[in-house]
Amino acid sequence: MESLLAELRAAVGAGAVLTDADVTAGYRRDMMPLAPHGQPLAVVLPSSTAQVRAVVRACAAAGTPIVPRGAGSGLSGAANAVEGCVVLVTTKMDAILEIDPDNRLAVVEPGVVNLDLRAAVEKHGLFYPPDPSSYDWCTIGGNLATNAGGLCCVKYGVTTDSVLGLEVVLADGELLRTGRRTVKGVAGYDLTKLFVGSEGTLGVITRATLALRPLPQAPSTLVATFGSTAAAGAAVSRVVAEGVVPSLMEIMDRTSIRAVEQHLRTDLNAGAALLLCQSDSGGEAARRELAAIEQACVGAGAELVYATDDLAEGRDLLTARRAVLTALEVYGAWLTDDVCVPRTRIADLITGCERIAAEVGLRVAVVGHAGDGNMHPTIVYDPSSQDEFARAERAFDEILGLGLALGGTVTGEHGVGKVKREWLAKEIGPVGLRVHRDVKRALDPENLFNPGSMFSP
Amino acid sequence: MESLLAELRAAVGAGAVLTDADVTAGYRRDMMPLAPHGQPLAVVLPSSTAQVRAVVRACAAAGTPIVPRGAGSGLSGAANAVEGCVVLVTTKMDAILEIDPDNRLAVVEPGVVNLDLRAAVEKHGLFYPPDPSSYDWCTIGGNLATNAGGLCCVKYGVTTDSVLGLEVVLADGELLRTGRRTVKGVAGYDLTKLFVGSEGTLGVITRATLALRPLPQAPSTLVATFGSTAAAGAAVSRVVAEGVVPSLMEIMDRTSIRAVEQHLRTDLNAGAALLLCQSDSGGEAARRELAAIEQACVGAGAELVYATDDLAEGRDLLTARRAVLTALEVYGAWLTDDVCVPRTRIADLITGCERIAAEVGLRVAVVGHAGDGNMHPTIVYDPSSQDEFARAERAFDEILGLGLALGGTVTGEHGVGKVKREWLAKEIGPVGLRVHRDVKRALDPENLFNPGSMFSP
Fold this sequence. Notes:
The structure is a homodimer.
Chain A: H1 2-12, E1 17-18, H2 21-24, E2 42-44, H3 49-62, E3 66-69, E4 86-89, E5 96-100, E6 105-108, H4 114-122, E7 126-127, H5 140-146, H6 153-156, E8 163-169, E9 175-179, H7 191-195, E10 204-211, E11 213-214, E12 220-226, H8 229-242, E13 248-253, H9 254-264, E14 273-279, H10 283-299, E15 304-308, H11 311-322, H12 324-328, E16 333-336, E17 339-340, H13 346-360, E18 363-369, E19 374-381, H14 386-405, H15 421-443
C-alpha cells in the first residue's frame, strides 16, 4: 500500500493525500446514520482532471477501490468509505469555467457549491433550478452523482433535466466526453443521463455543461391549512387536476406543525396539515395560478387560505417549512426517509406514517414536496438508546414498504447508496438488477468505483 | 430459415408474418433516401408483449437479427432492414392502456400514433408535448426509439423529457421494467433514458408510461421579417438573452421563403429571413412575452413585425412554415439534414449553407427550430440524375461538418441510424465509441438488435 500512497502523492501532491485517521474520519460517511462505512486507506483531493486520471490509474493498478465524494451532504451513504478504499474528494475542483448567457449554459468543475453557481448565474439574469436543501454547502458533483432534486422540481425538474454534457474519468483512466453544448441532440446513447444519478459507481465526473433558465419572477406565496390529512391530499390532487404548475408546493403534517409551533413559539392555526405554494410566473399569471390553487384548497375543505405577493411575507411563511428539521431536534436525533408516491396517494402516505409511528412508538413527522409526491417522513429517536435506534430503523424500512405499496419508489431524490440496496432490488426486480450489473460490468469491469454501493456486484 | 418462419408463425399467427417480397418491400426502409437497406427475411407484426418476447427468442435462437420498426417515418435509416433480418413492426400494438389525469400520466403501447395520443389526452385537458412533423402518422414507439423532438422542444423538451418508465424486451426475451409512475425517482441507473434514443439497438420497447402536462393556453403568434440573415440570427440571440421562452420559434431562410412564395402565390415581404414565434402562456403573460420578442426583433433590425392573438390568423401565419417541404417539391426531391448548433450560431449555419449550396450547385433551403438551434437544411435535387444525387450527398455531409465546426451536433432530433454512423464516430471520438460498444455488448451480447445501426460493432 505504501507504493500506492507514494503514487497518489506524486499525482496530487503530498498535501492533498490525507492518511491520518483523525483527519480521514471526517470523510468516512455522509449524513445518513444508517448506512455502513469503512476506514479509507487515504483521502485524496485532486485539483484537476489530469490528477483525477492519475489517481484512478494508480488505484486501478493497485486494485484499490475508489469512492468519489463531494461535500458529503448525501443522505444515502453513497459517498461512505468502503474498507481500505481511496476516497476521491472533488471539492478542490471548484471553478466555474464559463457562463454563456447567450446560449444559457454554464461549464463547471464538480466541486462548485450549488449556491455559488446559483449566485454566479443570477448576476446574468439566469437560474440553475436544482435546489436540494443542502444547497448552501452541497456540490454540483454530488448533485450530478445523486441526480439531486429539491423544492424546484415540481416546475423545473431534477438535476438530470439541467445537464447538457459531462466529462467523466473512466475506470481505466480514459476521459469520456458525453453530450454537447446545444440544447437538443440525439447523437448516440444518452450517456449523460446514465452517469447522472449513478452515484459514483461508473466513473468520476470532472466537468459538467449545465443548461440554465431565465431567472423567474419574484414568487407570490400561498398558505393553506386543513383540518384533516385527507383534505390536504385532496387539495393537492385538485391543484394537479386543475393543471396549475406552482413553482413550489410543500406539505407539512400534524407532527411537523406541532414541532414547528413549539420551536417558533407561534400558532400556525393548522389542525392536521399545511400546504405552502408559490408561483414565480409574475403579475397576472401568478395571480391566476394562486387563485386557482386557492379555489382548489377551498374546494377540498381548507380551513384558512392566505396569499401574498409580498416577498418578505412570503419568505416568513416559508420559515415554518424550513424550520421543521431544526424543530424536531428538540425531541432527539432525526432520520429522514425519502419516498415518492403518485400525487393522489400523498394523504395515504401520511396516514400510513401515523400508523407506523404509533406501531414503533416514535415520532414521525412528514414533510415533503407535495407537488411531485416526494415525501420525507422524518423519524425522531433518542440516539443514546439502542432500542430507539432499532425502532427508527424499523420505521425507516416500513415507510419504504408503504411507499412501494402505494405505487411509489423507494427514493425520490436522495438515492440508494449503501442504505437502500435491498430496497432497490425489491423495486426493480431480478431483471432490472441484472441489467444494472451488466451496465456496471461494461463500464467498470474490475468494480473499481464505489463497489457494493447501490447494488451488490 | 423455414424453421424460424414456422416459429414466427406460431408466435404471432401466420397472418402477421409477411414474407412476400412485394409486401415486405414496403418495410425495407424509412424516409431517408441516403441510408443503406437490405432485404428482410420476414416482417412480423406482433400484437402483444408476449408475442414480441416469442419473436425475440426465436430470432435469438436462430441467430437472425431483428430490426424494430414503428411507422417508418424516420429520417436516419434506423428502421431500415439489414439483409436477412426480421423486421419487427409494432404498429399493431396500438392501445392507449390508461390515462390517469389525477397523476398526469398515460400508459401506452408502442404502436399508438402520436396524434391519437395527443387527441386522447386533450379530452382530459392534458398535453403530450413531443410533436415531430410526422405526428399524424409516426408512432410513440418510434418517437421513443429516436428521442423525437418537434416544434414544441424550445419550451417543453424532447421525448425523453416526457417518459417516466418503459417495458422493454431484452435480447434474451426477458422483460425489463424501467422507471416508475411517479414524477420523481432516482432508484438505480436511469435505464429509461438509456433506452430512449437507442434506435432499436438495445431492445424492443413494448410499453411506455408517459408524463403529461396541463394543456397550454391557445397560442398567440408573431411573425418578423429580416433583410439579412445576420439580423434574424441576432434576433434569436436577443430573445434568448432576454429570457423569453416562446412555445414555438421557427426560422425560414431566403430559399425557403422564395419557394413558399411561389408555391402559395403570395408575397411574404421577407427579404432574407422570417421568424415565427408563439406564446402559449395566455393573457397578459403571452402579451408580455410577445412584446419582449417584438422588441428583440426590432432591436435586431427586423423590417416588419406583426403579432396576433387570433387563433385562425396565427394558424395562417404558420402555413408558410408548414408549406416549405411541399413547396420545395416543385424543384425536385428533397433531402432533409438535421444539425443542432448553439443558438448564437444560427446565422453562421445559414450563411454556411448558402456557401455549400453554391459550391455543389444545388438549392439548399434552411428551415429550423430557431429557439433551440436545431436546423434542417434541406437539399433539393433531381432524383433521376446520379450526378445531382451525388452532389446532394456531398452537401449533406458538408452541412454536418459545418454543424460540428460551429460547436454543434450532427443530429438534433432525427438520429444517427444507418446514415450518420461515421459522423457519430467523429462527434463522440474513440472513447465515446468504445463506451457505446461496451453498453451495446452488455445489453445485446450477440448483436441481435439492429446490428450495425448507429455504430459499427
